[in-house]
Amino acid sequence: MTTALLIIDLQRALCVGEYACHDVDAVIGRVNGLIAQARETGTPVVFVQHEEDGWEPLRHGGEGWQLDDRLQAQPQDPRVRKTSPDSFHRTELDAVLKGFGVTHLVVCGAQSDFCVDTSTRRALSSGYDVTLVEDGHTTIANGALTAPQIIEHHTLILRNLNSFGPAMDAKKASEIRFGAA
Question: Which residues form the Isochorismatase-like domain (predicted)?
Fold first, then answer.
């Protein structure tokens, strides 16, 4: 099984300022730990960046569209642009992953209730095994639920998606080991 670390939408607009997601500093810290471990084991690290031409904070190329400065991204890391909550929809993500021979994704990022959820489901329906980093995804409150409630709810729901065929699991960042059989 070839694994890739998939980091979704940890961009400045969602990590700093008015739209900053819940506990994002700690989430980025855990994601950086996973990035370091992935690099040590030769595991591909793939970043996804959301863009919306009609919304200035996520306009392609704008300040908010950039990856958060705290992320340990490197120039050679593949970066996939997307315009919907689905990281696979009208993007080259599947081709990038197939180019590495990936069959298993470790998924983290923002937002739990939009792009993380949708991309996880799409990965499963596309045949990828998925491990959700349960303390490595985040969001903002939505008026009905707090951000921690949304994060917990989506972790619970996604962890139990076993009808797609591929394996689905959720683990804390400290429990994830790249290169382990």
Answer: 3-141
